[in-house]
Amino acid sequence: MSADQIAAVSGNSAWMLMSASLVLLMTPALAFFYGGMSRQKSVLNMMMMSFGTLGVVSVIYILWGWSMSYGTQSIAGIFANPFELFGLKDSIVDAEGNYIEGAAGYPNIIDVGFQLTFAVISTALISGALAERVKFSTWLVFSGAWATFAYFPLAHMVWGGGLLSHFESGFAAWMFGVTDGEANIAPIDFAGGTVVHISAGTAALVLALIVGKRKTFGKSIARPHNLPFVMLGAALLWFGWFGFNGGSAFAADGMAGLAWVNTTAATAAAMLGWLAVEKIRDGKATSLGAASGVVAGLVAITPAAGSLTPVTSLILGVIGGGLACLGVGLKYRFGFDDSLDVVGVHLVAGLWGTIGVGLLATDAGWFTGGGSDGFKLFIVQIVIALVAMVFAGIVTAVIAYILKATMGWRVDDEVEQQGIDFNEHGESAYDTTGPEIR
To answer: What Gene Ontology cellular-component terms does the record carry (predicted)?
Structure first.
């Protein structure tokens, strides 16, 4: 290996380790974001759901998650053999003690860490739909089961060489009657529109329907108890997302730089788009709206960050922010209790970002010079979004009904009314009783 090659590998390794650390930060950031949106008596429980997910999914990812996602023994193209690389066997060093090189040229163990953080945040996102009414123990079991049966298979299908990895020469070719290479119709999912946001948003919707509403839903307004927490969480999510999208270039190169700029452009535009809808509809532009618009923009640009220009990222973002703001109202129209707007933000913005890249991808989108191939790409993006929704929805429903019949989802009505923090964790977030008198 030449000196230049060694320098390149070292630089890429450093960037990917930094990116993995940034994505890891996103789960505690989500805890602040969701915790601030919760009521005072349930904030610790909401934050613990994110931290609990960080514990459970990290452990199972090392044991079988990496193997199921990126193992070579694919089972029907849906998931890989969980025992092939169990416990990261044959994934760290070779027989001579040298670090195994990963697909992108740097040590494979770095990519393990990077992908682990994706699995964690994807699962933790779902918890926002269940605020203030479910057992912590049931959530922990669900997080492990959902990561195993929904996230790891989707990661394998889209990124790990599975069924959807070969869309260009598989289903898309059959759908349009073309052969591999004749048309630019391979699906685009740069950093996880399908695997992360559409799957998590769909799971949130399914759980909201199965678990049921809070006793106060539709009867009283559940206001966020700490808006500074919400804005801090959004800020940290934005910071961490540069690792999420920039790291998905898998190198410290121009693609990572493009993803960084596109992420900033779409997020800023989405925040303004959300605030504009709020101002027109409600007469006020709120801090909660600004924070939510930030997250909606981050979600929307995730599948498209490497395929747009900064200008088309602005377009994708402002539309995504506006759509997500309107999408939050779906829970009131249809009567499902998506407590902290996971469906409105992650499912709606994730669907738009995944489909929108089919319209706006540079020189390939339907509206940006792709012609008939651009239209085909647009259709393929719709299909992969629907596949992710159907797969995640079915798996989530099966897991949710099994847990409902065994462990049970809901805390007692009295516990829900009093607040979960003390009853589930023996703690309260704030001391409201004053100093103890001895």
So the answer is: plasma membrane
